[in-house]
Amino acid sequence: MKTKRAHEAPTRPVTLTGHQALWLDLMQFYIREAWLLDERRLKEWLELFSEDVLYFMPRRKNVPRRESHRELTSLGDLAILEEDKRYLETRVARLDTGMAWAEDPPSRTRHLIGNLEAAPVANGEVEAKTAFLVYRSHLETDHQLLSGCREDVLLKVNGKWKVRRRTIVLDANVLLDKNLSVFL
Known about the structure:
By secondary structure, this protein is α+β, with helices and mostly antiparallel strands. Helix content is 21%, strand content 37%.
């Protein structure tokens, strides 16, 4: 049994601000999401998204500094990904068929998520931005490291966070890998 020493200060309960509590809650959400992806529990991962989700990855272009507003393609323009819930479900189902030859055997991934910033906005939604590093290893010699940020709009549904919109911005503007078959 641990005894209290005379020089130790008494412990007090920690009181969090609303912003700190939100940050901790969302960090837990994002860590769980990373483990679901790394453990290939993709059907459970899909449950983290609302029915009206937009999963969007614009193309990045090299533009002069004065034209930085054109660096990322906009919604409806040519993008790397522009998917809804039905399309995400189709991609996950296809991976389960064994017919996705680029993912048989499946890739091993490690999603590292950090640098979370979050702020409440209208209608109970929260805007969150995270940085990511994703390491992907496939077969003996195929591997890649992807980095970037994700800008999410989240909403609590029945007490659980759901992603309503995700915009994934890769740091690289050219993907040298054979495919982009993993989720970010």
